[in-house]
Amino acid sequence: MLLPLLLGASMSPLLTSATPVNPLSPRQSSSTDPKPFDPSAVNIPPMLRFECSQLVIDRIDPLVNPGVIPSPHLHQIVGGNSFNATLSHDLVTHSSCTSCVFSEDFSNYWTAVLYFRARNGTYRRVPQGVSEGLKGHGGITVYYILPYDGVTEVTAFRPGFRMLVGDATLRQPAEKAKRDPKVCHRCMPKTGDWSNLNCDKPDTEELPSKFCEGGIRSVITFPTCWDGVNLDSADHKSHVAYPVEGNIMTAGGGKCPDSHPVRIPQVMYEVIWNTTIFNDKDLWPEDGSQPFVWSTGDEHGFSQHGDYVFGWKGDALQRAMTQSAKCFGDVCDGVLERQTDEQAMACTKQRVVDEDVDEWLTQLPGNY
Fold first, then answer.
1. What's the pLDDT at 199?
2. Which listed site, 116, 239, 255, 368, has its alpha carbon 20 to 30 Å from 296?
């Protein structure tokens, strides 16, 4: 749906046929003067849509592999700087900053990382861009979306709430009954895409198999129904559900199952991967197959996933959902506190696992 503002990256001497691209400095914004987001350009409901810049890229996973250092594969993480391998603490009181522009949001959001595999078998991390109209350094564009009808109320998450969408072990389409229907990729055009629904055509579960002029966008859309009791579940999924009829665009935001009667905001992640720096036929495999691979070792695209741990201060998120008429995009005047984009970009933390993730690698972190 949204145009990526792309980051540059230098090319390796191993790929002498490529034209070098000068990189941006590590914490330089990919948009120095973003245009305001214009909701009138498309028919979309009130929502929070804001940038969370890169906090850290690290091989820890407090949901699926709590306490395990290193975890099996690499993640890119945004949000509060108290992120660690367990997240057994209160995120608000233990974080001293957040990489999200709303300064009351100390939640943590994370996904897998995309790599480019060269003809000689070496790997290079694909840099991330920033979605249209926002300013930041890589990271994730986060959405909290209300039902489109404009009247249906939602209940904000509680401290300790967490959930997961996707499956890092997938290497082929999941069985229909076990499939998360809202993890997808889009081959972006140069000028953005306002005309197609998320995870509907032309989006695919697989990684795109052609050059994408605007990079590859990955979208992860979370469920909107909660059982109202459990803050988590053994698989980090069973306590939430997607509607059994309709969806967030239909009346009432869709019909929640009786087992999950509480309607919650729809959290969505949007990540723009600047694959354009690799749009050179001399770099791609000679057989024409696509060269990108997730940090899980998945070269098809099925293993992309998103993890979420709630960490908003007090009733801040509920205020924003209740007073949605005052909130749109990354502006919520009089309702939420907002820090500057530069302050958000300045919130980073040291990587726990001491390993190279950005140079040309002979294997992916985790020995994939």
1. 85
2. 239
